[in-house]
Structure formats: C-alpha cells, structure tokens
Amino acid sequence: MANQADLIIGLQWGDEGKGKIVDHMAQTHDYVCRFAGGHNAGHTIVIGDQTYALHLIPSGVLNSSAVNVVGNGVVLSPKDFIEEMEQFDDLEGRLFISDKAHLLLPYHALIDQARERMKGDKAIGTTGKGIGPAYGDKVTRVGHRVGELLDPPKLAAKITTYFEMYRGIFEVMGVELPTEAELVEELSGYKAVLAPYITDTTLLVWDALDSGKKILLEGAQGTMLDIDHGTYPYVTSSTTVSAGAASGLGIAPRDIGRVTGIAKAYCTRVGNGPFPSEDHGEAGQRLRDNGHEYGTTTGRPRRCGWFDAVAARHAVRINGVDQIALMKLDVLDGFEEIKVCVAYEVDGRRIDYVPYDLEEATPVYETFPGWDTTRGIQSFDALPQTAREYITALEEMVGAKMGIISTSPKREDTIVRKE
Ligand code: GDP
Ligand code: IMO
Ligand code: MG
C-alpha cells in the first residue's frame, strides 16, 4: 500500500479544536501541511502554561521536528505571516511556502471591510481580513502569487496596472491605494524575510510521500463554511472540505488516507448565517462561558448551541470521515439535560438531511441526561456513564466512531480509544 497522508478537517462551523488535535498528532508526523484559508483561521494550542494562537503557520510548528508547509490553496498575507513568524526563532529549514499560493495584500482587507459595511444587515460577518477579495482575484485571474514576491519592481508594476483597472471601484469604496514606489518598498520588505521559505511545495510533498514520510494535512475553518457545501453566502471563500486538501497541495485524492473529523460536543458559529441548533437563552450563554467561546482571530463572542447531528452526518459523508475527535466534552459538565438536534422540520415536514436553505429549518431535539464532570479525564472508561452513553448515541446518529475525546485544552487531556 502506497504511503498516504492523514487529514484533519473541521466538521462544523470552524473553531472545533483542530489546532489541539493537529498539535497532538504532529508529534507522530514528519510534515504538517495547510491547504486552504488564510489568517481568518485561529488555532489555539495550549502546552503547559503557554498558550499559542496560530493563524497561517501550520499547528505542527510547536513540534520542533515537524516540517511545516503552506500549500498553494492558501491565501497568504505577507505582513501577517511575518508577524506570526516572529514568535519563533528556528523556522528556516522547517517552514515552506508554496510559490503558487495567492497573495493577500492590505487592499484586500480594505475591500472586505467596505463590502461588509455596504451590505448592512445582510453582512456575512467576515473576519475582515480580506479573504473573499483575495480568493475572488484568484478565480477572476487578476491575483498575484507568492512566487512573484521574488521580483518586487515587476510585481509592483503589475499591481499598479491592476489598480488602474479597478480604480473607479476602489474610489467608490473609499479604499486608499499605495503608489508604485510605496509598493516596491513594501514588497521588498516582504521578500527580504520570506524569500528563503518560498519554494515549489508540490514537489516537496511528493518527495515526502514517496520517501515514506508521515504527513498530516491541516484543515482550516469547517465543513459548514465551505464555499460549495456550506450555508452560502454565509461561508468563507475556500474549499474547506477534504477534497480541498488535494487541490490545495497538488496531491492526488488517493494520496489521502485516514480522515479525522473534528467536532465539538456542542456547536458554535461566529459571524452571520443559519444555525438551527443555536440557543439564545441561558444554556447558550452557559456554553459560551464554560467554553470561553470568543474568537481567536477577532475576539467576537461565538454563537452557541447544541450538537447538530444532521449537519455532522452530512459532514461525515462529504469528507469521508474515518473517525471523529469529539472536543470540549467538559464544557457540557454540570448540565442537567443535554439536547441534540436529531432532525430538522421544514414546512412542517421532518427531514434528516441538510436542505438547500438551512435558514428554513427548525431543529427537532432529543434530550439526554447530563453528568457531573469529565474535565481532565484521560481514559474512556473513567468517563461518567451518561457521558459514555451520550458519545455512543452521537456515534450512531452521525455514522462514525469517536476515536478521540478531548476533556480540556491541555495536550495531555486527550483520550485516544483503542481501534
Ligand atoms: P480551531 O480553530 O478548530 O483550531 O479551534 P480554536 O482554537 O479556534 O478554538 C478551540 C478552543 O477550545 C481553543 O481555545 C482551545 O484551547 C480550546 N479547547 C480545545 N479542546 C478543548 C477541550 O477539550 N476542552 C476545553 N474546555 N477547551 C478546549
Ligand atoms: P478556524 O480555522 C470560525 C467565518 C467568519 C465568517 C465567515 C466568512 O479557526 O476554524 P471570512 O473572513 O473567511 O471571509 O469570513 O467565515 N470564519 C470562521 N469561523 N473559524 C474559522 O477558522 C473561520 N474562518 C472564517 O466568521 O462567518
Ligand atoms: Mg479557530
């Protein structure tokens, strides 16, 4: 059997705890590769009493032996990437950026924010980082790639031509544009820092696969934020599902082996858009408080609610999930009753799939008995019986085994169940 990469993917609306599991698995992998998204992602990792917030650098960076790859499917803001790099002093030789990744430049963020303002109450609630405009330029074929950073005057001239083409739109949006000379200076600064890391990462990953190295593919965002399969238009602009890992790195679908889907034991969403199992009352607030549900990237309070088994089953199928890592079980500690969305009602009809317009769906709940505490428990058998029953019920509803269970932010509070 040929060597295959392991994949980690978010099954809900992002922030499921991917960073913790990537860090956990990176300890037994040689390469960790990001394939989609940009610095809209925020992955928090707790090691001992240190907390790290990563946005673009793969979460394997905290293992000094892992090589980290930023693939072609990512949109990269050089300014933010360089700032993030400053936390580490040993990146050369273990961090590589695809020359085919697209550049996200400051004007993309300004366009993103201007569009959101213009949309008023129809705003998506983006992170304001420029993700949509950067991917938009890529598919419109007016984007600029990381490889072009190696020749700043040539790239500055190209960007200036692009500005000319869209000048009217930029003016209406109130976006201030740099001059060509300013651009040369800005881009030269990026080149000075990033040049040693820029390479053809497709070849790098092929070599790693062919020489039997263990590779971990790190998803960002979540299935319900996918550009095609999420709650459009309230989504991000990239392919966040498993399929994106192949195109976002330049590997074949058959190069992907085991898929671990990450899901919280409840649900959150940040930004606007449908979220059928959202709880606007006391329970939602309690989940937010217990789970510290405030965004890593924007600090916004996350909307909270119950586990959505319909959406999770959809995500299991679309991503080809082999096992689930169930995160933040401890956040449900102390609830007398725990609800799970087991179906939706649309126009008075009960359905068990994700409909075209999730806004129209109201949740059908089943209620499970709660438990006292799971916080910090490190073996499945030591979990309270009602917690074990909750997990078993979820496995049946979503059609996948929960092979990993997480009971605190700490590295060591991770239950790995035997196959
Ligand atoms: P990601 O974007 O999927 O990597 O997730 P985030 O890092 O944005 O959000 C997950 C948050 O939950 C982080 O602050 C983690 O430290 C924290 N976390 C992860 N696993 C657990 C857990 O099992 N219990 C608790 N209480 N917190 C957790
Ligand atoms: P991680 O990797 C949660 C959401 C935004 C907004 C929508 C579009 O940490 O799980 P964008 O800035 O991408 O155009 O915003 O997507 N969003 C996330 N929500 N976790 C993320 O990443 C997210 N990345 C984007 O809040 O609703
Ligand atoms: Mg996050």
Commentary on this structure:
The chain is an alpha/beta fold. The protein folds into 2 domains: about 5-75 and about 200-415, Adenylosuccinate Synthetase, subunit A, domain 3 (Adenylosuccinate Synthetase, Chain A, domain 3); about 100-195, Orthogonal Bundle (Adenylosuccinate Synthetase, subunit A, domain 2), CATH 1.10.300.10. It has 11 helices and 20 strands. The protein has helices spanning about 20-25, 80-85, 105-120, 130-140, 150-175, 180-195, 200-210, 245, 280-290, 310-320, 385-400; strands at about 5-10, 30-35, 45, 50-55, 65-70, 75, 95-100, 100-105, 200, 215-220, 255-265, 265-270, 305, 305-310, 325, 335-345, 350, 360-370, 400-405, 415. The strands form 5 sheets. It has a 10-stranded mixed sheet, sandwiched between helices. Strand 3 (about 45) and strand 4 form a beta hairpin. Helix 5 crosses helix 6. It is globular, with a radius of gyration of 21 Å. The model has no long low-confidence stretch (mean pLDDT about 95). The structure holds guanosine-5'-diphosphate (GDP), 6-O-phosphoryl inosine monophosphate and magnesium ion. Magnesium ion binds next to loops. 6-O-phosphoryl inosine monophosphate binds near residues 13, 15 and 237.
